[in-house]
Amino acid sequence: MSDSLHAPAFSDRDFRTALGRFASGVTVITVHHEDRTHGMTANAFTSVSLEPPLVLVSLDNRSNMHRILPSVRRYGVSVLAEDQEALSNHFAGKTAPGVQAGFTMRDGIPLLDGAVAHFIAEVTEIHPAGDHTLYLARVTYLEWHDRRPLLFYGGHYHNLRVHKGEWGEPESSLFSIGGIDAKGIK
Known about the structure:
The protein is mainly β.
């Protein structure tokens, strides 16, 4: 077969730009290793399962966290609040003077103060995936706070606009437990 049959009809830049059209929250993944706290910004974090409670984070194979996580096997996830943009930049390697990260330790895992939600997860599976590695993990601890999240879309930070009555009952979920027949949708 010809290589042209397998080559994508788009550039890496086009792929990145299209993926950037998916709005996501912003998290900082943290571990405690060799008597130090290590952290990195990640928006490639997602829920996987309610039963058992599973999450997934995708890490660049060149990242320091990818080097550390297979040995420590446990990590924290802090879902950043809208006023934590400077912390997101800090843990993405764009440090600025005066940025201070405050941590709370829970079960030996550092979690960022002021976050919208915290998770502690234990790695159950590791899957190489191109230039990244997927870390599937079982959630062992969680907490959340009524604050607005920091969002990332199109390569920029954004804030959530909330309208009363927009989300319905607290038990509502976007998990795909049902289906819809797309016939007739215009």
